[in-house]
Amino acid sequence: MIVASVLLAALAVALAWPVPARLSRAAWPARAPGTALVVWQSIALTGGLSMIGSLLLFGLSAYGDDPITAVDALVSVTLAGRLPVGATIFQIGSLTFAFLLAGHLVLNLAATFIRTERQRRRHLDLVALLSDPVPGEPRTRRLDHAAPVAYCLPGAFRSVTVLSDGLLALLDENELRAVIEHERAHLQQQHALVLLSFRSWGNALPWFPIAHLAEIAVEALVEFIADDKAREVVDGRQLASAIAIIGSSGSTSGGPPDVDSPAADLRVDTRVATTRIKRLIDGPPQLSSSSRVAIRAAAAALLLTPAAVLLSLIMVA
Amino acid sequence: MAQLGDLERSIMDALWASESPLTATELQESLEAGSAGVSGKQLAVTTVLTVLSRLEHKGLVVRDRAVRPHLYRASSSHADHTAELMHEILGASSDRSEVLARFLGQVSPEEAATLRGLLNSPPRDSGLSA
Question: What's in the keyword line of the UniProt record (chain B) (predicted)?
Fold first, then answer.
C-alpha cells in the first residue's frame, strides 16, 4: 500500500503543477475547446482523487496490508476507541487530513452551489422587475441601461438572456443575433455548472495557484465553445464584429485590470476578447477528430487511474 | 406564474411611482385604473395582498404594520435596484459575480485599444474580415 500511496502522490503532484501549467500554455485547446474542457475536468478530478487516495492509503497502511483488511481494522479499532499498535503520527495525521480534505472539498462545492443559487434567485427577481421582454425572442429581456452588456442566467425553468439598451444601440441585427446565439449555447451546454465547480475548487484551495489557473483557462474555453456553437447558425465575422464593438466601447470594464491576479503571475493570455476574434476570423483549423478522440481517451484513462490503483491492491491481496 | 410575475411588476411600478406608502386597496385601485379595458379582469384586493407578501418575502417591499390598514412601500428606489443589478452584472464587486455568464468579461484598456484598432481599419466590416 505504501508503494501505491507513493504512486498516487506522484500523480497528484504532477496534476497539481507541471501538467496544468503546460496545458494552460498549450496552443491546441483553442482548436478543440470541448476536448480541452474534458481534459481540465479530468485533471481536476483525478488530482483531487489521487491526493486524497494517497493520504488514505498511507494512513491505512497502519491498519493492514491491503485496503479491505485495513478498512475493517480501522472501523473495529476506532470503534473500540484505540489506535492500532505501531501506528506512527504521520499515518494517523495522513488519514485525518484525507478525511478533512475530502470533507472540505465537498462542503465547499455545496456552499458555493447554495450561495450561487441564492444570488441567482435575487438576480432573477430584479431582472423580472427592471427589464422588459424582447418581442419575438423567447426568454430574452432588455434592460434599460446605457452600458453595453449581454449575459445569460441559467435556471432549471427560468433561464434568461438579458440584453441592455446600450448593447442594442451598438449592434446591428446580425451581430445581435450572433450574441444571442452565443448566450443560448452557454445555457444549453450548462456551462454555469462547469464554471461553478471550478470556482468552488479555486475557493476551496486559495493557496493552490493552479486552481485559479484552471478557472481562467476554463472560462476562456467555455467562451470558445459558445462561439463555435453560435458559428453553426451565424456568420463568425458578425460574432467577431460584435465582440470587437462591445470590447472597444470601454464601458464593459468594471474597474482597473487586475494586475495582481494569478494569471498575471503565470503569464497566461487573458486577452480573451482578442483571442476570440482571431479564432473567429482566421483561426487555425479544428484539431483532427482522431487527435480529439485520442486526447479524450487519455483524459478518461487518467480519471480511471486512482480507481485502478485501488482495485489492483484489492486484487493482489 | 407569468401573470403573477406581471402583477409583481405592476405593483412595484406603482410603488415606485408613488410618493408616499400605499395601502393594498389604493394599489388595487391604481392598478385597475391603469389597466382599465386592457385585461378586462377584476383584480381582487386579496390577490394584491398575496403578491405584496411575496414581494415582502423577496425583500423588495417593506410593510408598515403599525397602522391599519398596513402601508406598503418599495424597499429601494428603481434607480438603486438598477444600480445593484448593474453592479452584479459588471462584476465590480470584490468577489466575482458567480451567477451569470457575460458575453464579454472585463476588457483591459490596452485590449480595448487593440479592438478599437481592429474596428477602425476601414470600413467596419472589411476591417474585421481582413
Answer: DNA-binding, Transcription, Transcription regulation
All structural domains of chain B with their residue ranges: 2-74
Q: What is the nearest CA distance from A168 to chain B, expressed in angstroms?
A: 13
Task: Determine contact, residues A312/A18, Cβ cutoff 8 Å.
Answer: no
User: Is the ipTM, as predicted for this complex, more than 0.85?
Assistant: no
Residues 97-156 of A with CB under 8 A from B: 112, 115-116, 119-120, 122-123, 125-130, 143-145, 147, 149-154
Specify whether A131 is located in the same domain as A5: no
Written as tens digits, the pLDDT of chain A (317 aa) is 899 999 999 999 999 989 999 999 899 999 999 999 999 999 999 999 999 999 999 999 999 888 999 999 999 988 998 888 888 899 999 999 999 999 999 999 999 999 988 888 889 889 989 999 998 888 999 999 888 999 999 877 778 999 999 999 999 999 999 999 999 999 999 999 999 999 898 889 888 878 888 988 999 999 999 999 999 999 999 999 999 998 888 644 444 444 444 444 444 456 788 889 989 988 788 999 999 999 999 999 999 999 999 999 988 87
Q: What is d(CA B107, CA B89) in angstroms, rounded to the nearest whole number? A: 14
Element (H, E) at A78: helix A67-79
Which of A252, A270, A275, A276 to mutate against chain B (most B CBs within 10 Å)? A252
How many domains in chain A?
A: 2
A63-102 residues touching B, CB cutoff 8 A: none
Q: Does the beta carbon of B94 lie under 8 angstroms from any beta carbon of chain A? A: no
Same domain for A210 and A73, yes or no, is no
For the segment(s) B2-74, the CATH number from 1.10.10.10, 3.30.1330.30, 1.10.150.20, 3.40.30.10 is 1.10.10.10
Question: How many Cβ atoms from other residues are within 10 Å of residue B33's Cβ?
Answer: 9
For residue B120, what are the contacts with CB-CB under 8 A and spacing of at least 6?
B127
A246 and A226 assigned to the same domain: yes
Q: Note whether A37 contacts B: Cβ–Cβ < 8 A.
A: no
CA distances from A123 to A142, A153, A154, A222 (A): 14, 9, 11, 22
Type of residue found at B130: A
First to last CA, chain B: 49
Q: Give the nearest chain A residue to B109 (CA atoms).
A: A250
Same domain, A22 and A143: no
| Residue in chain B nearest A147 by alpha carbon | B86
C-alpha cell at A303: 480519471
